[in-house]
Amino acid sequence: MKKVLNYLTPALCIVALAFSVAAFSKACTVHSENQTGIKSVASTPAGQPVDLTYAADKALPSVVHIKYVQNSRVQTVEVQSDPFSDFFNDPFGGFFGRGNGGTQQRRIQTPKKEATGSGVIISEDGFIVTNNHVVAGADELTVTLNDNKEFSARIIGTDETTDLALIKIDGKKLPAITIANSEDLKVGEWVLAVGNPLGLNNTVTAGIVSAKARRLGANGVESFIQTDAAINAGNSGGALVNTRGELVGINAMLYSQTGSYSGYGFAIPTTIMNKVVDDLKKYGTVQRAFIGIQGLNVKDYVDQQKAQGKEIDLGTMEGIYVGKVQEGGAAAAAGIEAGDVITGADGQKVASFPELQEIVAKKRPGDKMSIEYLHNKKKKQETVVLKNEQGNTRVVQNQDIDVLGGNFREITDKQKQQYSISSGLEVIKVDNGKLKQAGISKGFIIQRVNDESMNTIDDLQKVVRKASTSKEPVLYIQGIYPSGKKGYFAISLEE
After folding, report:
1. How far apart are CA 256 and CA 265, in angstroms?
2. What angle do CA 93, 97, 98 make, to 5 degrees?
3. Average pLDDT over residues 338-361
4. Which of 71, 229, 328, 386 has the highest local Cβ count within 10 Å?
């Protein structure tokens, strides 16, 4: 179970359900069939019990069980040195990579890891949405359908910022769920959570929408649907559905003192999910748009000023106080300034940061968005052209080590002793690519990239992928030549 280490109160914390469930059925309708065979839908009279059986029956086949396996592997870790035992085991250790402030690097064998979670089938040909924390780092993924059929799954793409992932199984005519617009949800509306909590497969729980646009500080982009439907470990990635059995959210978090259900769960709305899924299919990474501001909710800002003995009147108590405008960003280009208050976007009222995030999360760099705001308490409106994190409107590519144009291998123990280093990757071949352009040749040993130690080829892969979609798509490489001379390079990943 993934734990989010920021507490909302001294006693309560937010816990990502390392595999969650969520599905809700349509409970306020009665389905009947007349003599002509035409089905009709009638609303349940006010005050009458809600029937959720239709929604449960419709949603259950679309929610799957996901088994996660991470194989045992060798990792290099830093441990505290024992100078006496280390001397007898390796009398030259102090010269070859030991010391370093009383620590040394050792290679350890990690145990095999297994876990389970949930997912939702969104297409008949086998695309499944789940949480990033359900599949991150998996070597094997096994998907079990509601009818107990098993499939091996592969990861199409993941997005840590929203905690969403898209995986794929090879199937046909699978029971894909109907996706609804989460913006249509109302507080107080009945919903169902469908998933596999605590090893109990195909479980349905019911509750209401307790709140919308919640921000918990767990992910980079958040606008959670809050529900009191029971959610537990194993529910992550499962479906939150309305009373028609339509998907409105992907369950991801619970709010708990103990790590198990004690009141509230949180789901990622389909408005955010749809954009992430579409981007992962088309580009392999999310094309995230930015307005280019920093700030906080107006009420929080006013309360902050009051705590300092200052009285302030912004002309409203709802909206987003702009504390800083990023130079060269979309907001700056539109004339928005620090001290302004954003009150709306694309014709929708914006009372808090999560509401603005949900609107922006549906956009791509290059898209236009109207912003309503107060400047010196006077209403204004501007159109901004959203940009990516790199400050332009180009498509961001999720690159891997192929872009470097080289082959690599982990250095040997002999090389560690020869160069007095504890880790590194030797360049064993250079083709046309970024390495050749930078002047890195065969035999060079890469020790650190972007201040990360290079112990395995997977370490290099991770840092290249992270840098390629970051604000500064550059690799800062330091290493050593076969002669012992140090080398430093900066490689731009931009085209």
Report:
1. 9
2. 55
3. 93
4. 229
